[in-house]
Amino acid sequence: MAGNPERQFVTRSEAPTVKLMRSLQFPFLSWSVALAFLLSHPAHAADPWLVFEGHEGPGYGKHVVLVSGDEEYRSEEALPQLAKILTKHHGFTCTVLFAINPDDGTIDPNRNDNIPGLAALDEADLMVIFTRFRKLPDEQMKHIVDYVESGRPIVGLRTATHAFDLDRGKYAKYSWNNGGWSGGFGRQVLGETWISHHGNHGSQSTLGLVANDAAGHPILRGIKDGDIWGPTDVYGVTLPLPSDCKPLVMGQVLEGMKSGDKPVAGKQNDPMMPVAWVKTYTGASGKTSRVFTTTMGASQDLENEGLRKLLVNACYWGLGMDDKITATTQVDLVGQYLPLPFKFNGFKPGLKPADYAAQ
To answer: Is the backbone of residue 120 left (phi > 0), alpha (psi -120 to 50) or beta?
Structure first.
């Protein structure tokens, strides 16, 4: 049963009911039917997070916590899909956290002050973060800060460069525009904060080209020029990046919103901006973490196989599992994946985390 992919998407909160159903020996219920039943049960639909249990694969025994919460790029869609890929194809156990409206328990990306379940980071092996301008209270921020300062690995996507907007509180230095700790979490930990849209937002897409001297990096195994493409535009960064950053992928600005569109002529591509890099960060613990950052990663970007491979490889690399990265890394989409176009207020209202386990 361990290899049954349907079982891999039974969350921890649902597991007791699954055990009960097994003990009652309902042979006529397939796991897909059982899962559909569980996900419709009010007690489980109210859970403010998802946990996908890994069973087989190189990642078995490792726990990845994926933190979503942005208003525009549908991180609430992207991270559950990435979690399913990591669980089904690689065996990681994944917890996905969301911006939740506490009044009704629904996912509300515009609610920037509440991400329940961050205590999962206390025992996590890897944090994947995709948030934007969050104003989290100190009691929630503490789990993120303790994780970052512990020296454990971090993967940051798209708006994670400006993950927090904190004008007060114990952890205000993590804010994207902090002057004392220049650039806050984005620049100090990930390598850059919010600067600008370098490509024209919504009309110029991004093609990934392997950076000079980066082809041999483990994260790029099985990835070549042009494999990575996404409809999101290239972000501007301050060049050069900090000295402890190594660019892996450069973002070629395309004239339009198709992968086959021509590159823009002129200064937008001269020089190109890095859209993926690696870095190190030494936290208060004195331990140094591996950090991977990409300014791509919107839910629509994940329709691209090359980007999915980049992200999965980055998770392996962050965990020091370089020897497990292969040129044929399995990154097929899991279940139905129909991401919404990126835009403000473009999320589907009324959904709860369990709805993303059912897809």
So the answer is: alpha
The per-residue pLDDT for 14 is: 44
Q: Which of 132, 146, 77, 153 minimizes the C-alpha distance to 314?
A: 153
- Amino acid in the structure at residue 155: V
CATH number at residue 53: 3.40.50.880
Is there a cis peptide before residue 271, judged by omega within 30 degrees of 0? Answer: yes
Question: What tokens were used for 191?
Answer: 């390598």
User: Alpha-carbon distance 334 to 343, whole Å?
Assistant: 24
pTM given for the model? 0.88
Does 147 lie in the same domain as 23? no
What is the total count of domains within the chain?
Answer: 2
Closest of 60, 7, 14, 59 to residue 31, by C-alpha: 7
pLDDT tens digits, 156-194: 999 999 999 999 889 999 999 999 999 999 999 999 999
Q: For residue 262, what are the contacts with CB-CB under 8 A and spacing of at least 6?
A: 254, 255
Q: How would residue 44 be classed by pLDDT, with cut points 50, 70 and 90?
A: very low
At 46 the pLDDT is 62
